[in-house]
Design a protein that fits this description.
Blueprint: E1 2-6, H1 11-20, E2 25-30, E3 41-44, E4 59-62, H2 69-74, H3 76-93, E5 98-102, H4 126-135, E6 143-147, E7 149-150, H5 161-170, E8 175-178, E9 182-183, E10 186-187, H6 188-201, E11 205-209, E12 215-216, H7 217-227, E13 235-238, H8 258-263, H9 271-292
Parallel strand pairs: 1-2, 1-4, 2-3, 4-5, 5-6, 6-11, 7-10, 8-13
Antiparallel strand pairs: 9-12
Bound molecules: NADP nicotinamide-adenine-dinucleotide phosphate (NAP).
Length: 293
């Protein structure tokens, strides 16, 4: 298969490129950071700047987006360009390809939780609104994934939340985990398996993909600390409502994943399995870095 992955330097995008490049021809787009991934083809493309004429692409996984929630609130025009216009440009560049759009659980307002695919979205933030509008650009036959993801960043210059947390715990610092935010996160490694199945079976429509059990961010961070061998007590309970965020944060964006469970052969991993996978990747990266010194 010829697969185009947008946002190849992002947390999800870089994992997907590395996952799929041995079995498929993978072309990935970069924007500000032109990272090199051996065995895949890099294409520099600011998606807000118009379409390209790309032929022979079988599937596109559109991960590129403006993901900074407060950044979107501060600059709604740029958020619209990056999350809506860019999606339209991408769709218009690959006629005939299967389009897979990575959306977000932030399309919901979080007042109720356990949202199914047929629940009416009602985003609280510019980020959520523009991601929802981006969904509207996906053509018939495309696939929209509503999710919340976690994994390693794409390199030392772009560490993810997990590496930042590990660094703090290693320094003997404590970290705050919110007890008033509930979600159903899926690790990028697990999501890659779902995406591969979507491409193989050419699945279409909206799917919620997430862990089978919702958890608070506090529980999530304690599970991370435990897997990485730190005392979970170093994760302190905190309240997101006490933080002065620019964009409002939804309280409970847990997703009902019944449709995915009934459709996919791929299974959702629990936190322990996901963090185990992330730890292996992390140690592997540390090893590579040490060998290079
Ligand atoms: N991370 C989460 O917790 C989460 C939760 C739910 C849904 N999602 C969705 O999952 C997807 C992947 O998230 P992620 O965390 O991997 O995001 P990320 O790490 O922030 O990566 C996003 C990528 O998009 C690229 N990009 C931004 N603007 C662009 C433009 N105008 N043209 C081309 N590329 C552009 C960025 O490139 P530069 O950095 O070089 O600009 C970056 O590589 C996103 O669509 C996001 O909305 C994420």
């Amino acid at each position: 298969m010829n697969i185009l992955i947008t946002g190849g330097a992002g947390m999800l995008g870089h994992l997907l490129v590395n996952r799929f490049k041995s079995r498929h021809r993978v072309i990935y787009t970069t924007h500000r950071d032109a990272i090199n991934i051996d065995g895949a083809e890099q294409m520099s493309w600011d998606l807000t700047q118009g379409r390209k004429a790309l032929s022979g692409i079988d599937a596109v996984i559109h991960t590129a987006a403006m993901t900074n929630v407060d950044g979107c609130e501060k600059d709604p025009g740029q958020a619209h360009q990056s999350n809506v216009a860019a999606t339209r440009n991408m769709v218009n560049s690959v006629p005939g390809a299967q389009v897979i759009y990575i959306s977000t659980d932030f399309v919901f307002d979080g007042t109720r939780g356990n949202y199914s695919e047929s629940d009416v979205p009602s985003p609280l933030s510019v980020y959520g609104r523009t991601k929802l509008e981006g969904e509207g650009e996906i053509p018939q036959g495309g696939c929209i994934i509503r999710t919340s993801i976690y994994g390693l960043g794409s390199g030392p210059q772009r560490p993810g939340m997990v590496e930042k947390m590990i660094a703090r715990l290693r320094n003997g610092e404590t970290v705050n985990g919110f007890t008033d935010q509930i979600f159903t996160p899926v690790s990028t490694g697990n999501l890659a398996l779902f995406l591969e199945e979507i491409m193989e079976r050419r699945l279409a429509g909206i799917y919620n993909i997430g862990s089978s059990q919702p958890c608070t961010k506090y529980e999530f961070m304690r599970a991370a600390a435990r897997t990485f061998g730190f005392d979970p007590e170093a994760v302190k309970p905190g309240l997101s409502s006490a933080v002065n965020y620019l964009a409002p944060r939804p309280r409970d964006v847990s997703l009902d994943t019944t449709k995915a469970r009934n459709t996919f052969k791929t299974e959702a991993w629990d936190l322990e399995k996901s963090f185990g996978f992330i730890k292996t990747q992390y140690l592997c990266h540390q090893d590579t870095k040490t060998q290079k010194l």
